[in-house]
Amino acid sequence: MNQSKRIRPEAMIFDMDGTLFQTETVLLPAYHKLFDTLRSEGLYTSPTPPQERLLGSLGMLLEDIWKVVMPDGSPQAHARANELLLQLELEGLAGGETQLYPEVKETLEELHRRGVKLFVASNGLEHYISGIVETHGLAALFDGLYSAGKHGTLSKVDLVKLLLDENGVKSAWMVGDRSSDVEAGKKNGLCAVGCAYAGFGHDEELKGADVLISSFAELLKLYEEADSE
Questions:
Q1: Three-class SS of residue 26?
Q2: pTM for this entry
Q3: Domain 3-22+99-225 is of which CATH architecture?
Q4: Is 152 left (phi over 0), alpha (psi -120 to 50) or beta?
Q5: Alpha carbon 185 to chain centroid distance?
Q6: Is the model's pLDDT at 203 over the cut of 80?
């Protein structure tokens, strides 16, 4: 991390998929059920696209994801996919088989105990984000959950700016695994912490991050080593 950035922040802002939450534990079963349903409803006739397309698109706005995953799909198929994905993901969360990354809850609890304000900023849907937080017992730890689905922002940069403005946050670290997270941090004058453990993106995804972590628990060490002022 650059010396000028080694200031202990008042807040940390987290992406959700690939940062806090092991997305594939709910996403991949939902993905295959989604295409089975689209075909049964006559909205899509091709085989299910490779799931790697979906995993490689995480971090995008949902409307852009479907353009990548099924470019041959109609607007009606894309709209129905939005509905189905949320429904199936919420069913998966209710099933209790999903997972956070190792030591996420413990690390968040310790940061919260030390007075750090914690936020989520995700390009996902509102009920999906809140569903993960509720399912895994994280609700009491966060000062706010911000999603593109709820706030209608066109980019992660705009979403993070809104978060900062609404909460009067002056110093924060942006923590995430995609280029959109790094961009959101840098363009809002924040330290960008890149999570290199999910493996959904390409090597260039985290180019420009101030520091990379290979496990979530490393975040607490970075916080402890940062200057208080």
A1: helix
A2: 0.89
A3: 3-Layer(aba) Sandwich (3.40)
A4: left
A5: 14
A6: no
Question: What is the distance between the alpha carbons of residues 90 and 109, in angstroms, rounded to a whole number?
Answer: 24
Cα distance between residue 18 and residue 198, in whole Å:
5
Mean per-residue pLDDT, 163-187: 96
Start-to-end C-alpha separation, the chain = 15
Distance CA(157)–CA(190), nearest Å, equals 11
**pLDDT, average across residues 186-198:** 94
Residues 6+ apart with CB under 8 A from 163: 13, 119, 121, 144, 146, 169
Q: How confident is the model at residue 115 (pLDDT cuts 50, 70, 90)?
A: very high
- Least confidently predicted of 52-56, 128-132, 157-161: 52-56
Distance CA 74, CA 122 (A): 26
**Domain residue limits, the chain:** 3-22+99-225, 24-94
